[in-house]
Write a structure and sequence with these properties.
With 540 residues, this protein is of the alpha+beta class. It contains 18 helices and 16 strands.
C-alpha cells in the first residue's frame, strides 16, 4: 500500500478523537466530520508529537545497537580479565610445553606453564610417586569365633564391637550415623559420604577395613579416636605413612638435585611438571651421590598457542569491523523523503509485511547528521593513526597481518591476515605480545582501541571522568541500569509525552465545545421546524 507523505503527517478520520461519526438529524449536517475539520490543527499536533516520540525511540535503538557492541568488545576482548581478551599477555606467552627425550620417559611426564629457565632444565628421573597414608585394621571376626566377617555382617556381631564404642568412634574428628544394627557396608558408605577426608573399603578376603587419606604426601595422616583404635586396632601397628613424590632435576648440566612434592606435580621455577610413573633408574649412595640412566632424561620446549591467538584476534577484528560498518552506514545514509512513522490508522490499512517495509525505510538515515555519531565515526576513521601514535609502527602491525582497509569508504575497518599473524606467533610471539599488549613507552593495539572507545561508551565510568561515555549520555544503555532513565533521549521523550498530554487535553476541550454548539444548533432547528409546522397548519 502507498501512504502519501501528507497523510502520514496527519490523522485520518476520527483518529485522535472520541467522536463516533454521528450526524445531525435535524440539520442534516455531518457533525463529526465538521468537528474533525475544526480540530484538524490540534489533531495534527498530536500526530506530529507521537511521530516525534517514535523517531526518538528509533534513534535510541540505533544508538544502543552501537554502544552494546562497544561494551561487549570492552568486556570480552579489551579487558585484561575478559573471557576472550586480546590484551592479556598470557594469550601470546609460550604456554604450550612439549616434553622431549626418550619416548618411554616422555609418556610419563607432562608440563604446563612457563619458566625463564625452561631451556636449561632437564629431568633425570622420578624415583618415587606420591602416595597417601593408609590404615589397615585388624582382622574382623564374628563373635568369639575365627569366622571372617563379610560386608553384610552387623557391627554388633563383630568381635570387640559394642554400641557405646560404635557411637563414640571418630576418624579425623568426624563421627558417623551408624549403630550396632548397621552392616559393615553401611559403615563404609557412611565414612565415604562424610567429610572425614578418607576413602574407606572393606576387603573380605583379608577381613580388614582399609582407610586411605584423600591427600597424598608425607603430610597426609589419619587420626582415629581411642574408641576407633579399640575397634580397628592401634595406629602404631596398623598405620602406613604417605610419601612425597621425588624428582631429580638438572639445571644447565649441573648435578641432579632432588625436588619433593606432596602430589605428583612439581613446580620447577614456574613450570608445572606432572609425573605418572617412575623412570631414570635413580640411585643415591650413602654420600648423596646420584646415579641415573642418562638415556631416560627429558627436557622441555615451549611455544605459543598460535591457533588460539589467531582465532581470538580474528574474532575481535570481526566484531570491531561490524561496529565500524554500522556507524559508517548511519553517517552516510540519508533519510528517505516522505517516510514518517505510521499512525495506528495507517497501520490498520496495511499488511504486516507492508508495515515492516515502510518502517525499515522510515528508519533509514535516523542518525544522519547526528553530531555525536559523526564525531565517533571520525574517531574510527583515525583509529590506526592513534595506534601508531601510541608507539606501534605501521610496519610492525603489517608484519603481523594487521592493516587498515584499502577501501576508504568503509569507515576505517581493519584487515586481518591470518597466515601472517600465525607465522609471527610461531616465529616471535614476544613481538606479537608487545604489539598487541604494549610495553614500556608503547600503548599497544588493544589498549589504544579501548582508550579511544572509552570516551564514547564504557562500562566503567570511573575510567572516564565519572561518565559512561558520550553516546551513553545521549541514549543510555540496557547494559547499564543506572543510565536507562538518565539520558538525553529519555528526557526528550518525557518532554514529548508532556506535550502529548497537553494536546490531547486541548482536543477534548475543543470537541466538547463543538459538540455542545452543534447540539444547541440541533435544538434550535428542531424548535424552528416545530414552529414552521404549526404555522403551516394554521394556513388551512
Amino acid at each position: 500500500m502507498n501512504v502519501s507523505s501528507s497523510s502520514s503527517s496527519s490523522s485520518s478520520a476520527l483518529g485522535n478523537t472520541s467522536l463516533k461519526g454521528f450526524g445531525g438529524l435535524a440539520s442534516g449536517l455531518d457533525r463529526d466530520a465538521l468537528i474533525e475539520q475544526l480540530t484538524l490543527n490540534t489533531n495534527n499536533k498530536i500526530t506530529k508529537t507521537q511521530q516525534s516520540i517514535t523517531k526518538q525511540e528509533w534513534r535510541q535503538e540505533a544508538y544502543n545497537s552501537i554502544t552494546d557492541k562497544m561494551i561487549d568488545m570492552e568486556d570480552d576482548y579489551l579487558s585484561y580479565s575478559g573471557k576472550t581478551s586480546i590484551v592479556n599477555n598470557d594469550l601470546y606467552a609460550k604456554s604450550v610445553v612439549t616434553v622431549k627425550g626418550n619416548s618411554a620417559s616422555t609418556a610419563l611426564v607432562s608440563a604446563t606453564g612457563y619458566s625463564n629457565l625452561l631451556d636449561y632444565v632437564s629431568v633425570k628421573g622420578v624415583s618415587q610417586l606420591a602416595s597417601s597414608s593408609y590404615f589397615t585394621s585388624k582382622k574382623m571376626t564374628v563373635g568369639d569365633s575365627d569366622t571372617v566377617a563379610t560386608k553384610s555382617t552387623k557391627l554388633s556381631e563383630l568381635t570387640g564391637f559394642d554400641e557405646d564404642k560404635i557411637k563414640a568412634m571418630t576418624i579425623n574428628g568426624k563421627s558417623f550415623d551408624v549403630t550396632g544394627e548397621s552392616k559393615i557396608s553401611d559403615l563404609v558408605n557412611a565414612i565415604n559420604s562424610s567429610d572425614a577426608g578418607v576413602k574407606a573399603t572393606y576387603v573380605e578376603s583379608t577381613g580388614s577395613f582399609m582407610f586411605f587419606d584423600k591427600e597424598t604426601g608425607e603430610q597426609s595422616d589419619i587420626e582415629l579416636s581411642s574408641e576407633a583404635e579399640a575397634l580397628f586396632g592401634d595406629k602404631a601397628s596398623h598405620f602406613t605413612a604417605g610419601k612425597d613424590a621425588e624428582m631429580y632435576v638438572s639445571y644447565g648440566g649441573s648435578k641432579p638435585v632432588a625436588i619433593k612434592s606432596h602430589t605428583n606435580t612439581f613446580n620447577v621455577d614456574g613450570l608445572k611438571v606432572t609425573a605418572s610413573g617412575t623412570f631414570g633408574d635413580i640411585n643415591v649412595d650413602g654420600s648423596g651421590n646420584v646415579t641415573y640412566d642418562a638415556s631416560a632424561s627429558v627436557s622441555f620446549t615451549a611455544t605459543a598457542n598460535a591457533d588460539k591467538a589467531v582465532e581470538r584476534v580474528k574474532s575481535f577484528i570481526e566484531a570491531y569491523n561490524k561496529m565500524v560498518e554500522e556507524v559508517n552506514t548511519h553517517v552516510t545514509t540519508r533519510p528517505a523523503k516522505g517516510y514518517d512513522p505510521l499512525t495506528e490508522e495507517q497501520e490498520d490499512e496495511m499488511t504486516e509485511k507492508e508495515i515492516e517495509k515502510w518502517t525499515n525505510k522510515a528508519k533509514e538515515g535516523i542518525l544522519y547528521n547526528d553530531n555525536e555519531i559523526r564525531d565517533f565515526a571520525f574517531e574510527l576513521h583515525g583509529m590506526m593513526n592513534d595506534i601508531v601514535a601510541g608507539g606501534i609502527s605501521y610496519s610492525d602491525l603489517e608484519s603481523i597481518g594487521i592493516t587498515l582497509s584499502s577501501d576508504h569508504a568503509d569507515g576505517g575497518q581493519i584487515t586481518f591476515d591470518e597466515d601472517k599473524f600465525r607465522k609471527a606467533m610461531e616465529s616471535d610471539s614476544s613481538k606479537v605480545e608487545e604489539i598487541m599488549c604494549g610495553s614500556e613507552g608503547k600503548t599497544g593495539f588493544g589498549q589504544t582501541i579501548n582508550k579511544q572507545l572509552t570516551p564514547y561508551a564504557t562500562r566503567y565510568a570511573s575510567r572516564n571522568g565519572n561518565s559512561y561515555g558520550r553516546l551513553i549520555e545521549v541514549a543510555g544503555s540496557e547494559k547499564l541500569v543506572a543510565t536507562k532513565t538518565k539520558n538525553e533521549i529519555y528526557d526528550k521523550i518525557q518532554g514529548f509525552n508532556t506535550d502529548l498530554d497537553k494536546w490531547k487535553a486541548k482536543l477534548k476541550v475543543e470537541e466538547d465545545r463543538y459538540i455542545k454548539q452543534f447540539s444547541n444548533l440541533e435544538k434550535l432547528i428542531n424548535s424552528m421546524n416545530t414552529q414552521a409546522s404549526y404555522l403551516s397548519g394554521l394556513s388551512y
